Amino acid sequence: MTARVVLAYSGGLDTTVAIPYLAKMTGGEVVAVSLDLGQGGEDMESVRQRALDAGAVESVVIDAKDEFATDYCMPTIRANGLYQGEYPLVSAISRPLIVKHLVEAAKEFNGTHVSHGCTGKGNDQVRFETGFTDLAPELDIIAPARDYAWTRDKAIAFAEENDIPIEQSKKSPFSIDQNVFGRAIETGFLEDLWNAPTKDLYAYTEDPAIGNAPDEVIISFEGGTPVAIDGRKVTPLEAIEEMNRRAGAQGIGRLDMVEDRLVGIKSREIYEAPGAIALITAHQAMEAVTIERELARYKRTIEVEWASQVYDGLWYSPLKRSLDAFIDESQQHVTGDVRMVLHAGKATVNGRRSNHSLYDFNLATYDTGDTFDQTMAKGFVQLHGLSSKIANKRDREAQ
To answer: Which parts of the chain span the membrane according to its record (predicted)?
Structure first.
């Protein structure tokens, strides 16, 4: 049986070179599958044609923008999904969707193998392959960049020697991954931690010091999902796109971080995710008003584990599904409006309102009309600190 490899095709250097290389190594055929996740830039028809020019027998482009926004970005917002407290999982949440469509393509085109362009140093190899084994363990997996020890220099040389159309050159060594939720940039001079990012690295955000006038925005949520901006109803995709534009104009969402990769090494990554950061900031503010204290406290621990599961490529794991169920339950009252000022790199919340609010003005006020019974506080404080008081008494007497 002739091998047929279904390749996750981005149109970049590694996956373009992979097409003829996989055909050579397997003696089979390559089907290229590309997803439009709202990354913008190059026309997807050009990406499709490049795969054919590189030797693919089939090249498929799937418009998955709305699916990505609804089923992957929105859960991330509801989970306040920030790996290491900063990174909104821009690349990590796209991989399980790509896996899903590659598995479907393998069924449609009688694929025997699936393949990706990831190296052995990164997280994406785990995200792809764990997803493949979860959804279609019968498919063999090939990772040419990892399994055959490809480096970027070797890939460029191979492309030049075999007249393979690529966009990258030796003068532009950056690795960039982007979708509607944000951009990730690495390699090149960024590998020296002392080198500052240059302005040409950014595409979704303006320089926050440029001095654009402040932009006030009201984001409305229903069940933890943004459904309107300034009173205008929006789809999940439209919410992200509009906040990318407005928060991006203010330089919001730029990240320069050293993150702990799953494989155990530290990596310097530059991210820009204006819409993601603005929407998560607004969502956190809405939760602060509508989620009860103990639930909110426990959800924060869940958010850390949720982000770790997703970052580590375990989107389809039983634990991640269970965390989703917890988060979905926690969101039933996260409905209302958050007002923010977008300016100079920051999204600053300055107003919240909700029919589900747990904020009671009469309990909170220090002015006339205060309904809080302060006589209860003395006994509460004494009981609250009782166990600590007893322990400290014991420790003093033991000295």
So the answer is: none
CB burial of residue 201 (10 Å; 0-12, 13-18, 19+)? middle
Q: Which tens digits make up the pLDDT trace of 39-60?
A: 987 789 999 999 999 999 999 9
The verdict on whether 124 is a catalytic residue reads yes
> Tell me, what's the pLDDT at 2?
86
pLDDT digits (tens, 9 = 90+) for 333-360: 999 999 999 999 999 999 999 999 999 9
- Read off the pLDDT of each residue in 101-106 and give the average, rounded to a whole number: 98
CA distance 8 to 65: 16
Structural domain boundaries of the chain?
4-170, 178-353
Distance of CA 134 to CAs 2, 129, 140, 305, Å?
25, 8, 13, 20
Asked if 95 is an active-site residue, the reply is yes
What pLDDT does 170 receive? 46
From 124, 246, 254, 354, active-site residue: 124
CATH superfamily of 178-353: Argininosuccinate synthetase, chain A, domain 2 (3.90.1260.10)
Please say if 14 is a catalytic residue: yes
Quick one: CATH architecture of 4-170? 3-Layer(aba) Sandwich (3.40)
